[in-house]
Design brief:
223 residues; mainly alpha; three-stranded antiparallel beta sheet; two-stranded antiparallel ribbon; 8 helices; 5 strands; globular
């Protein structure tokens, strides 16, 4: 009905059955805003390119049949694991909305990173959500540029004289980089490196800190 300056929307909804609503004493409602945009040709191309890589990894070959098999398996897994309960439904890569396509591409890329599946095209060129891609690479210790084994690079330098075991790492910007790309970053600088590869760091959270055995709290003076 209305959206105020603070971004609060007033929505008018008709209850299918008023008596059921009163009897069940609903305390919360779920509002779904469907994306009216249809999947783009570029998104569809990315989906099939990623599915082809997965099909070859699973079956050792890329054929229309193996790609179709991979598509069905990955779609069902995506529906069950990633979609909200009210949104769980079959979707088609020929007519789904852009938001679903974007999330499905992100899911496929995360699956490829997690299982170390080789790809002909760097995943950074296929991803739709850079931050989720970089996060997946950090969690799986894969270089976000080339996919090779990587170490964590602190974009926010710890600084001379600071003990890495004492510094709190939560909230600091980081990237997963192999030795080659880590060296390149130091040679051309953070800004030039980010611009060259169209990449952006993510902030370290508890999960990432635990993965890399990083300090998350200040040590007590009595410890």
């Amino acid at each position: 009905m209305d959206i105020d300056e603070g971004g609060v929307a007033t929505i008018k909804a008709t209850l299918p059955n008023l008596y059921h609503a009163l009897d069940r004493k609903y305390g919360e409602v779920e509002i779904i805003l469907p994306d009216g945009r249809r999947i783009s040709p570029e998104q569809r191309r990315k989906c099939y390119a990623l599915l082809s890589e997965i099909a070859e990894w699973i079956d050792g070959k890329q054929t229309p049949e193996t790609v179709e098999d991979a598509k069905q398996v990955m779609k069902w897994d995506f529906i069950l694991k990633r979609m909200e309960s009210q949104e769980r439904q079959l979707f088609s890569l020929s007519s789904c909305d852009m938001s679903t396509a974007r999330e499905f591409i992100t899911y496929l890329i995360e699956f490829i990173v997690k299982n170390d599946i080789p790809t002909k095209v760097p995943l950074i060129e296929q991803c739709e959500d850079i931050s989720k891609y970089v996060y997946a690479c950090l969690m799986n210790k894969r270089c976000c540029i080339c996919g090779k084994p990587a170490d964590l690079h602190h974009v926010d330098a710890i600084g001379m004289g600071n003990d890495r075991d004492e510094v709190i790492h939560i909230g600091r910007d980081a990237l997963p980089l192999c030795r080659v790309h880590h060296t390149e970053l130091h040679s051309i600088g953070n800004s030039s490196f980010m611009a060259k590869y169209h990449i952006e760091p993510v902030k370290l959270d508890e999960k990432l800190a635990k993965k890399y055995r990083l300090n998350t709290r200040k040590k007590d003076e009595n410890e």
